[in-house]
Amino acid sequence: GQTIDGLVIRWPGGAAEEIAGVDVNRRYTIRQGARQAVEVAPRRQVAIAPQRVETAVESGRARILTPSRPPLPRLTYRNAQGAAAEAPTGDDQTTLVNLWASWCAPCVEELRQFAQHEDQIRRAGVNILAFSVEESPDGSVLTPAAAELLKQIKFPFTAGRLDDRGVDQLDALQRALLDAQSPLPLPCSFLLDRRGAVCAIYRGPVDVPQLLKDVQLIEQMDAQAFRETAQPHRGRWRREPDLTNPFQVATKLYEGGMNDEAIAYLRRLIDIGLARGPDSQRLKPEQLYFFLGTLLEDKADYAAAQDAYEVVMRIEPQNQEVMRRLAEVAAKRGDATKAAGLLELLVRLNPADASLRFDWAERLAEMGKVNEALTQYRLLGGSPVWQTATLRAAWLLATHPDPSVRKPNEAIQLAQRLCDETGDDNPAHLDALAAAYAAAGQFDEAVTAVDKALAAAR
Predict the structure, then answer these.
(1) Rounded to the nearest 5°, which phi and psi values hold at 18?
(2) β-strand 94-100 against 188-192: which pairing, if any?
């Protein structure tokens, strides 16, 4: 057979090294300077027989622990008698909010299990709020089928009907917490701790033993331990994962068209943040109050919006976006003086911002400081808003009741410039030109301008 007489290796750098004891059809590890080869055992040859791989069937069930523990939105439901009631959560009692329907077989079995294990559940200190989501004829009471089911199984916990608005709030909550943006299934449950914070979501039925185990988890574990338990896999983190900010729940409510509910949720977050102090680092008051202000402004509650923005200003006195919002709200409330003061500061900080300067000029005009307003309008020549600013200046100069302000000839020049720019095709510009001519006593020219305005408006 074949043999190897010797092996010479030339290493980087040029040094040669002779290695002895090397045989054919072997594997070796050779290290520079060792002068010997270390044999490496061959890899195992494993015969793999082909077989069918069974695909796991999705059950649709999921148990999701939520380390961020956001508070549950305020829910109003109809009790068995049809009276409106607020869901009691966070009253120093662990609570399970459960959604069900009488036509849903897994829901019915889950409710039976709750009823059969009443003693265990109550001993664990858990209250169950079981809300039917079935549409009733008058929208206020349980359907006959739902009421009959509760009676048949002798359901011992609180039960009632939750309307679509309430279900939508819970859907927004779970969408804020989960990456998978799918609708709530039936049954579905939310486990709350003693403060009314969501600690777990069960998509599909939850077994009573699992429920009691999770109740023990949330009561006995600190936040860090619960966070570790909530992870699907054990291991070490390269960096700590970010927790869902409860602020995102308010955002989801707003995106779902639930403005009032988002406002109520933000107010609750603010109350929680004030109560917990430094423990609520994720509940940044400036962020909460700013979003609250925008939602209040959106529903035309300008006084409350101004209050919210002013809280942000006390925290971040240099926040220019909040200054802008405050100026807008003050203007909408008719407080031109406050708006002008804020806009003046903003213009000094942003002298090239034409929209800020125009808004400042508008507020000055409302305050009766017409000459100051005209100065700002004139400075806007050549800016993106020059036509609007020039039109406002032309009207003031043509029609102001104070003779010291009124300058018809300058008004004619400004209005004519606008008309030349738009080719006598803008009725508003032609109206201003007519007013300027009339103020100057040039009535024939004024009539001509009015005729052109009427023609342009047709």
Answers:
(1) -95, 130
(2) antiparallel
Domain boundaries for CATH 1.25.40 within the chain: 387-458
Selection from 62, 68, 71, 94 nearest residue 216 by Cα: 94
* β 126-132/158-161 pair status: parallel
In 201-335, where does DSSP find H-type helix? 208-220, 223-230, 247-255, 259-276, 285-298, 302-315, 320-332
Widest pairwise Cα distance in the chain: 124
CATH classification code of 387-458: 1.25.40
The DSSP line for 80-94 is TTS-EEE---SSSSE
Alpha-carbon gap, residue 357 to 8, rounded angstroms: 84
Residue 279 pLDDT greater than 60, yes or no: no
Q: What is the mean pLDDT of residues 310-327?
A: 95
Asked whether the beta carbons of 172 and 258 are under 8 A apart, the reply is yes
Q: How far apart are CA 399 and CA 397, in angstroms?
A: 6
- At the topology level, CATH places domain 62-230 in Glutaredoxin (3.40.30)
Residue 187, preceding peptide bond in cis (omega within 30° of 0): yes
Q: Which residues pair with 201 in a beta bridge?
A: 64, 190
pLDDT tens, position by position, 109-168: 999 999 999 999 999 999 999 999 998 777 667 899 999 999 999 999 999 999 999 999
Residue ranges of the chain assigned to CATH 3.40.30.10: 62-230
Is there a contact between 427 and 456 (Cβ–Cβ < 8 Å)? yes
Looking at beta carbons, which pairs linking 426-433 to residues 24 or more positions away fall under 8 Å?
426/456, 427/453, 427/454, 427/456, 427/457, 428/391, 429/391, 430/456, 432/391, 432/394, 432/395, 432/398, 433/394
